[in-house]
Design brief:
The chain has five domains: 197 residues, Rossmann fold, CATH 3.40.50; 172 residues, Isoleucyl-tRNA Synthetase, domain 2, CATH 3.90.740; 128 residues, Isoleucyl-tRNA Synthetase, Domain 1; 83 residues, hypothetical protein PF0899 fold, CATH 3.30.2320; 61 residues, Helix Hairpins. The chain starts with 9 loop residues before the first helix and ends with a helix. By secondary structure, the chain is an alpha/beta fold. The protein has 28 helices and 31 strands. Strand 28, helix 25 and strand 29 form a beta-alpha-beta unit.
Length: 882
């Protein structure tokens, strides 16, 4: 145990975490005698390290789990990691490049050996870091989305949905990540505001003999595009049929700049007359809207891009160049050919890959898709009807909007790391879908009628499944609900209770888990979803390593202690609201730790005299009621998932009520003993305080729990009983509130008159209110350092007065202050304030100023006037009292 005046977290955090693990306090198994409480961790990527968002999210989860454990529930917090196909493959490729190895030089099996090597070396880092935070996960239950049983569940689900007709293969426009070399779902695309350029290009009108004779037909039409490098994939130019400017082009053709290929002018009301030039280049292979136009007008498709974003042979020009290099070169060539009319800048949104940051290419691609509309209906109803509650509920509208506009989910990824799609292609190009090669061969023989087919005749699909296709099964698969649908764990722990996650994955993880829950178990996966805010810096930017604006959470723990970081993060983190991080909040958390530590040291430093009577009955009765009243408020906050508010209530109870008020009321005179009854009550209160603190500050509370008094072998606070709601006396709480206001007023008088705290004062009370001061006189004397309290009928001359709870209080100044010096100080302040009032009044008397100044300025000047008048009146009263 630390013996210093300040709490030293380093000395105790490893000790208690190791002890909790040693005694199995985090372990959970089905217990019919207990109500289960289950949380599954949002599995962090195996590529990840602890960041501020993880800190906030996992602190909240740990608070909920520790409270549930203390409430006697069978608490089970399942940890694990996600294999993160795109991010992990990128890490492995980078590792190989450092070793001088190219992915293209390896077989799939060789690459996967390296990937597993990387995972074993780095994949568990973030979970070890969570232990530093105090996370009380059942580490024996740690799962990984690509472990054998969980992968088998993914394949089983794919086959099941395929056979139900909910999974299909087809050519669709997808989001293509050229850097990752894979398709992405809409939810993996991050929009970024940017300034883009609009290039106005001249397309030559193909003119026949009649046109040549008719000089009114222009030689060119101007088309605006933000992507000039795609003009080689143009198959038409579209104009609105009602646009009078282009009536002469109906039925005509134009030539693609530089390339010279003739393409038709088509008519479609989709084209906006007043946007750009009103003429739209149509490139079906590289734009979703163009693709729809192409289908409607039966246009050809020319895909000019390779997987890596470079131009292919179909482009004819700039072949092999990266798309952005091609853009620079074509703009230069267009300008030289006098085919570039102008360039304009405009505000735009750039679609980027969540994982690689690359600019997304809309691209036609043969992919696997999962139909969403049928599964979305029960998932939307569950949230709209509060079978699953979102906290805060403001996110219901966002959820509804997403679910009502849901699109089929592109689930295939062109990677090697992940669950390989269980589709097996026959020599004739047809395919079967099965859970294993053996099953696929049997199906292939049956469907083809070729009994001579062998396993080597089948070729498994090269693609893997989207990572989210495994994590949407997480609440079921972690309990082996697919492998053994009726096992004890899934029957006991499912549905889980609470999910804590970020709003940005509300759709593509939370909603999909809800869909999976109803699809595969006909039950919701959880009852409540607590949505945290985003951790931002003081400028409002999301914290990230790339911006360099995020502190290292482990450095913060090293500096301030885990408990200080946990509480500091939560001080300004209401559900669903972004947290604007300031290290001063973490300092506040550390200071809170020191406050509690010093309160403990004070109590432990008292000597007991068992012969002394108890002089603190009123203080004891008050704090007992105050604790019970605060506890009702704390529990109400927890029930409404206001975790930050719960902490603030605990903070006020501990800092103000227990430390600053109660301990001051009952502490004995310096070096004097305390009575037995007061100490017993105080130790009991400290225990209750530590209990409500424990979910927030697990390390400090466990340390003090054991130091406060001798405990039995397994009598740890982590498994102590959570307090129970009890009656409280509201009258004594209200009375003490008034008494403490009296004490505060006495202290204000001391401060304003420079009267030392160690100088005792007399106090007279002209009682006009209903408060009976008799039980509280000892507290007022002690906290206000009052030597004599007397009741009076009239006002006391030569005294400073104040009013509280309807009663007037007087503190005589004679003997307490230098009257002459005080008079001089007050006269100087009065003279200055009168001068200030005169200047403000003069300004407000100026008609030109009043008429010309903004209303806010006038209102501010009137406030200055009112404040000065009130201050002059108070100064005059103080002078009159001398």
């Amino acid at each position: 145990m630390s013996t210093g005046t300040k709490y030293n977290p380093k000395e105790i955090e490893n000790k208690w975490y190791g002890s909790w693990l040693e005694h199995g306090f985090f372990r959970s198994k089905p217990n019919p005698k207990k109500e289960p409480y289950t949380i599954v961790i949002p599995p962090p990527n195996v590529t990840g390290v602890l960041h501020m968002g993880h800190m906030l999210n996992n602190t909240i989860q740990d608070i909920l789990v520790r409270r549930a454990r203390m409430r006697g529930k069978e608490a089970c917090w399942v940890p694990g990691t996600d294999h993160a196909s795109i991010a992990t493959e990128a890490k492995v490729v980078a590792m190989l490049q450092e070793r001088g190895i190219q992915k293209s030089d390896l077989t799939r099996e060789e690459f996967l050996e390296y990937a597993w090597e990387w995972k074993e070396k780095y994949g568990g880092i973030i979970l070890e870091q969570l232990k530093k935070l105090g996370a009380s996960c059942d580490w024996d239950r740690t799962r990984f989305t690509m472990e054998e049983d969980l992968s088998a569940a993914v394949i089983e689900v794919f086959v099941d949905l395929y056979r139900k007709g909910q999974i299909y293969r087809g050519v669709r426009m997808v989001n293509w990540d050229p850097k990752g070399g894979t398709a992405l779902s809409d939810e993996e695309v991050i929009p970024k505001d940017t300034m883009a350029k609009m290039y106005h290009l001249r397309y030559e009108v193909v003119r026949d003999v009649d046109d040549v004779l008719n000089e009114g037909v222009p030689a060119y039409i101007t088309v605006a595009t933000s992507r000039p490098e795609t003009i080689m994939a143009d198959v038409a130019v579209a104009v609105n049929p009602n646009d009078e400017r282009y009536k002469h082009l109906h039925g005509k053709k134009v030539r693609i700049p530089l390339l010279g290929r003739a393409i038709p002018v088509i008519l479609d009301e989709y084209v906006s007359i007043d946007f750009g030039t009103g003429a739209l280049k149509v490139t079906p292979a590289h734009d979703l809207n163009d693709y729809e136009l192409g289908l409607k007008h039966n246009l050809p498709i020319i895909d000019i891009l390779n997987d890596d974003g470079s131009l292919n042979e179909k482009a004819q020009l700039y072949v092999g160049q990266d798309r952005f290099a091609a853009r620079r070169n074509i703009v230069k060539d267009l300008e030289e050919a006098e085919l570039l009319v102008k360039i304009e800048e405009y505000a735009s949104v750039l679609q980027t890959s969540e994982r690689t940051g690359a600019v997304i290419e809309p691209r036609l691609s043969l992919q696997w898709f999962c139909k969403m509309d049928a599964m979305a209906k029960p998932a939307m109803e569950a949230v709209m009807e509060d079978e699953i509650k979102l906290h805060p509920p403001k996110f219901k509208n966002m959820y509804r909007s997403w679910m009502e506009n849901i699109r089929d989910w592109c689930i295939s990824r062109q990677l090697w790391w992940g669950q390989r799609i269980p589709a097996y292609y026959l020599p004739d190009g047809s395919y079967v879908v099965a859970c294993s090669t053996e099953e696929a061969l049997e199906l292939a023989r049956h469907e083809s009628g070729n009994a001579d087919l062998q396993a080597e005749d089948l070729r498994q699909d090269e693609d893997v499944l989207d990572t989210w296709f495994s994590s949407w099964l997480w609440p079921i698969s972690v309990f082996d609900g697919f492998k053994d649908p009726d096992n004890k764990d899934i029957q006991y722990y499912y549905p889980t209770n609470d999910l804590v996650t970020a709003p940005e994955i509300l759709f593509f993880w939370v909603a999909r888990m809800i869909m999976a829950g109803y699809e595969f178990r006909n039950e919701p996966p959880f009852r409540n979803v607590y949505l945290t805010g985003i951790v931002r810096d003081a400028q409002g930017r999301k914290m990230s390593k790339s911006l360099g604006n995020s502190p290292d959470p482990l450095d913060l723990i090293e500096k301030y202690g885990a408990d200080g970081v946990r509480t500091g993060m939560l001080f300004s983190s209401q559900a669903g609201n972004d947290l604007f991080f300031d290290e001063k909040l973490i300092e506040q958390g550390r200071n809170f730790s020191n406050k509690i530590w010093n309160a403990f040291r004070l109590i432990k430093g008292w000597e007991v005299d068992e012969t002394l009577p108890c002089p603190n009955e009123t203080a004891i009765r008050w704090f007992e009621s105050r604790f019970n009243a605060a506890f009702v408020q704390i529990e109400d906050h927890f029930s409404k998932y206001r975790i930050s508010d719960a902490l603030l209530s605990v903070y006020k109870l501990v800092w103000d009520d227990f430390c600053s008020n109660y301990l001051e009321m009952i502490k004995p005179t310096y070096q004097q003993p305390i009575d037995k009854e007061t100490l017993k009550a105080t130790v009991g209160f400290m225990e209750q305080v530590l209990k409500v603190l424990h979910p927030f500050m697990p390390f400090l509370t466990e340390e003090l729990w054991h130091e406060l008094k001798e405990r039995k072998e397994l009598e740890y606070i982590i498994v102590a009983s959570w307090p129970k709601k009890d009656r409280f006396n509201k009258e004594i709480i209200d009375q003490m509130e008034s008494v403490l206001k009296v004490v505060a007023a006495i202290r204000n008088v001391r401060n304003s008159k420079n009267i030392p705290n160690n100088k005792s004062l007399d106090l007279s009370v002209k009682q006009m209110g209903q408060l009976d001061y008799a039980p509280f006189l000892g507290i007022i004397r002690k906290l206000g350092n009052i030597s004599e309290i007397s009741l009076v009928q009239e006002s006391v001359e030569g005294a400073i007065s104040f009013v509280e709870a309807g009663d007037e209080f007087f503190i005589p100044m004679e003997g307490n202050i230098d009257v002459a010096a005080e008079r001089e100080r007050l006269l100087k302040e009065l003279e200055y304030t009168q001068g200030f009032l005169n200047s403000v009044t003069k300004k407000l008397s100026n008609e030109r100023f009043v008429k010309g100044a903004p209303e806010a300025v006038i209102a501010n000047e009137r406030k200055k006037q009112a404040d000065a008048e009130a201050k002059i009146k108070a100064l005059e009263q103080s002078l009159a009292a001398l």
